[in-house]
Amino acid sequence: MRLLTLGIFVAILALTLLITFWAAKRTHTTSEFYAAGGNLTARQNGFALAGDWMSAAAFLGFSGLVSLYGMDGSLYAVAALAGFLVILMLVAEPMRNTGRFTLGDVIAYRMQTPQARLAAVVGTIVVNLAYMVPQMAGAGALMKLMLGLSYESAVVVVGIGMMVYVLFGGMIATTWVQIIKAVLLLSAAAVLVLMLLARVGFNPLVLFSMVEASYGNQMLQAGGYLKHPLDPLSLVLSFMLGVAGLPHIMTRFFTVPDATSARKSVIWLMFLAGSFFLVTTLIGFAAASFVGQDAIRAADKGGNLALPLLAQYLGGGAGSVVGQVFLAVVCAVAFATILAVVAGLTLATSGAVAHDLYVNVIRRGQVSEREQVRIAKASTFAVGALAVGLGLLAQGFNVGVLVILAIAVAASANFPIIVLSLFWRRFNTAGVIGGVAAGLTSSLVLAFIGPAFMKEHALFPILNPTLVSVPIGFFGAIVCALLAGRDSAGESHFGEVFFRAQTGYGVGND
Predict the structure, then answer these.
(1) What is the rounded CA–CA span in Å between residue 246 and residue 478?
(2) Which of 445, 455, 390 is nearest to 413 (CA)?
(3) Check: CATH 1.20.1730.10 for 2-392+400-503?
(4) Where are the domains of the chain?
(5) Structural contact between residues 102 and 348, judged by C-beta atoms closer than 8 angstroms
(6) What is the pLDDT of residues 173-208, one digit of tens each?
(7) Which of 214, 297, 369, 487 has its CA 20 to 30 A from that of 399?
(8) pLDDT grade, residue 100 (50/70/90)?
(9) pTM of the prediction?
(10) How many helices (H) and strands (E) does the chain have?
(11) Which of 253, 273, 281 is nearest to 418 (CA)?
């Protein structure tokens, strides 16, 4: 059976490597490496965005939370839809019109100082690394189930795979891997939902009744995982603001030719990812009913293997050929999901290091395209090694929870400086530095002393710190901007920035 599983896994992996080989022949310039030359259509970018967002957290973590804790896990999935609206209405068009390759471009276009770009680099790197860790944890759990590899070996394999994607194919390879992965993921989810609905006569209420009969009505009520009364509000706020601060999501708006395409990309994202999130509750409850919470915890105490175990059960169980095939397909798609997401994160991080830090801060723009791509590829090795190291420490945590903590950091450190840079005339370099420092520090400290990490010994009662750390981030940005005094050069440049952000005038002429 393991040979069959390995064969299916290798086949899907080989397909993604062929895409990387194809993309490598089309990746020569800086624009192609970072932004696919800006030539993607709205549909292509929408599928790629959906692939970016349907990560290990969505595929494994959210369904696992539902299976163990009930309706609180569903809130993790549904709340994500609120974040897409903020991107559509507030961020997508200005980002596309003011940036080139990275989040740092948007900030520096307004401030035009290396210190502001450096602050954006710090925010980008911390958020991306925090987002990589749960992907690594999901990969470790999957490979252990699928191939019998140790958790540590699986994390290293993921690290090598993401380096191959980024080093040779850049954004072009990452995009097409994301597109194919999104199609496979949605197809696998559709088949899984049809199979589980067939078990209950296509009546979801039967499934809910089974859950209540087995585990009590607390599984159908709030409070199973989000214990504090403010936890749901903080979670939704984290999604609403944090998704718009994720660098690997924001850089996707530079891969399309204009702002209209950027907005259409988000609409595709909402329909594709939203349709998947809406069925995670059914998947989680089916796993709890058919597989059982004890078996789910025995396979992975964070609940990350609930969905693969359900796939195996619906296919006839561990002793069935159909069950093993379905398990292998689901695990292989999930592994491809993780590889693609991590590749996107690595690309965004290496872009911040090479384009923002090396080219624009250290070398002040005096770098050839060949050298810039070379530095970006070199930074990929460093980012990959660091991600592997952090992934080894994440064993046993639910990947959905870890991703939300990363989004909380993005909401607290990145979102305030993006919004204030685009819409506040008095904002300046000191405000950028103060906002990143305050948001980053508060979100990380409150997360580490909160229930997610300290459990019953938590010093901070709210699971997700966004409700407190976002105001701190805005406060730090505004106070530092006011204390630094007026910046006449920055204020005079605001009119140009605002006009360009809203109209797109001048884009493509830089």
Answers:
(1) 21
(2) 445
(3) yes
(4) 2-392+400-503
(5) yes
(6) 778 888 888 888 888 889 889 999 999 999 999 999
(7) 214
(8) low
(9) 0.83
(10) 25, 0
(11) 253
